C-alpha cells in the first residue's frame, strides 16, 4: 500500500554515534565468525596429525586451506571496519572539539561586550583626579605625622662630640 500512497514517515539520518555502533556490531559479528573458523582449523590440524599420507590427508589439507582463506578474508574485512570506526570516532572528536571552540568564542564575545559596556562607565580623568587628591592627602598626613613626632626638649645644636662626652644626656 505504501507504493500507491507513499510513506509519510521519513526515517531520520543516522548520527555518527549510530554509525559507529553499527560498525562495531558488524566487527563483533565478524569476530565470532573468525573464532568459529579458528576452531575448525584446529580440528583440521588435529586430523592431519592423526592421518597418514594419502588422499584423505590431501582432502583435509584442501578443506583447511579453504577455511584459512575464509578466515583471512574475514580478518581483512574486520580490519577495514575497525579502520572505518576509528575514522568516524576521529570525526566525532573533531566535531566535539569544534563545538567547544565555538562555545569559547561565544563566551569571549560576550565578555568583550560586557567589558566595553563597563568601560563606558569609567572616566579616566576622574580616576587621575582621584589619584592626585589621594597623593595630596597622603602628603598632608605625612606632614601631620612629622609635626606630631617632633621632640620638644632636645637642643638643636647637639653634635657628635657632645654625645660622645655624655653631656647631652644630662
Automatic annotation (TrEMBL):
GO cellular component: multivesicular body
Coiled-coil ranges (or none): 105-147
UniProt feature, compositional bias: Acidic residues: 154-164
Signal peptide: none
GO biological process, one term: late endosome to vacuole transport via multivesicular body sorting pathway
Keywords: Coiled coil
Pfam families: Snf7 (PF03357)
Region (Disordered): 148-170
InterPro entries on file: Snf7_fam
Protein family per UniProt: Belongs to the SNF7 family.
Name by which UniProt lists this protein: Charged multivesicular body protein 5
